What does this fold into?
Amino acid sequence: MAVIRPEEWPSREDYDEYACLLSFVVATRASTGELEYLFRYVPDQVSVVELDAAAINRHLEGEDEPEPVVDVRAEPLHVDAGLAADARAVLTAAHRTLAVGEPTGTQLLAVISSVTSAAQALGVPLDLTGADREAVNLAVEGVLGRAPVEPAATCV
It folds into this structure.
């Protein structure tokens, strides 16, 4: 567990004794469903990010984050039309979030997780580990540029 202080504390006049200005980072083996249930009354105050074993090992070993690798290949995609539409909707929402806001920290990690899952559903594996906002935005644009718009033929 880590406790993160705000960069700047409010003045005495602006201090709100009912607002917590600290952020908490907790690593747990609990499932996403368990965490969502536990924090069901404050979902806007919690960001849940799943880490793979490689990310945890890098953190424990003190290694630097690897450079993000965007693997966007030119071969045609063959995915279920409904799944493709859902994935495009997730990517479009992520693109809007990145264009309008400045997500950082756990918010950016949540966007990266959504983008990676949507791209995987479209058959485009992405490794955006440690990517910044611009790299994620470029990856989203790359995947959206080749995601099927019309119903795709099913592969047998």
